[in-house]
Amino acid sequence: MNIKTTSKNIANKKATILKVSKEVVKPASHVKFSPSWVVKYGKDAPGYKMELIIRIREGVKKAEWKELIEYTGSTEKEFEDILPASISSMQKKTVYGKETSERIYELARLFGLGYDVFDSKDDFKQWLKTPSKSLGNKIPFELLDSSFGFEMVENEIVRIQYNVYS
Could you tell me if residue 34 is inside a domain? Predict the structure, then answer.
């Protein structure tokens, strides 16, 4: 076997690999580390927070945002006051900025925790929309427009998880 034959074989193998990888890549649901994947699997992924930082810096794609909305059984309108960008400006973009992407991932993590703690998605969504005594009779969902509000709601869900009521 000579060097030309080996180079040709390697080039053919690379072309085959590229062809196969292009065929395999398709819009799959719950692409690893997408926001909807985080809702479902985030707690089980080792080192996933570092990956989320990278994903936030790259920006969440519009398709991933739409997938999260669908997965949570929500509408964009429900998140209008929570996201730092307007829904109309988000509809014009294909990739969101860092601040919007971070809020999307915060929502994904919160919904993932809520789905783990509550019996069903509907029970969690109902809890989010019901005033909570431990949150000063505020509706948890309405507190999600700030990082402090996110933290308070997340802490409350963890208290519920461990049956520690305030």
Answer: yes
